[in-house]
User: What shape does this take?
Amino acid sequence: MFRKLYDWTLAQAASRHADKALAASSFAESSFFPIPADVLFIPMCLARPDAAYRFAAIATATSVLGGIFGWWIGHFAFETLAAPLLTFYGKMAAFEGLKSSAGDGAILLMLVTSGASHIPPMKVVTILSGVINFDLKWFVLSAIVARGGRFYLLAYLLRRYGAQVVSFIERRLPWVAAVLVGAAAALWWVMQHG
Assistant: This one.
């Protein structure tokens, strides 16, 4: 089963619609969707290492645009869009905790850490930035640096070591799949009880 899913993901990552799917995923992740763009970005870079930097450019640009949309949601539509969205994802308590300690320096730090490592989730920080009216110029600049740095570093690593990564995964696919399933289960548990 995991072999078919792995092969299917790599095939989709190399398809002619992959760029559009990556753009949509990167945009959505930064403003309202819970699944990181890495789910598409990494297989795309593994399937087409020659295009890794182009994929990084697409992911960076659309992630920044999605972040601006998240800022807009927080600034202009918190009660109608953001509050129900945060409640749906179980992130309202985390949002309120961040909001109570959010000054400009804290927001800038959160933008960099969430852009680089998804901690805290990017959508929460972009919406919070809009709610507290964080300067949009600094917001965009920090998003470009954090998201661009993340995607371009991943692109470099996957271009350079992608063949070894693919070889490792393919030789040990059942173990890799077990680790991924365990990590997904742990993440789900943390999101439900965290």
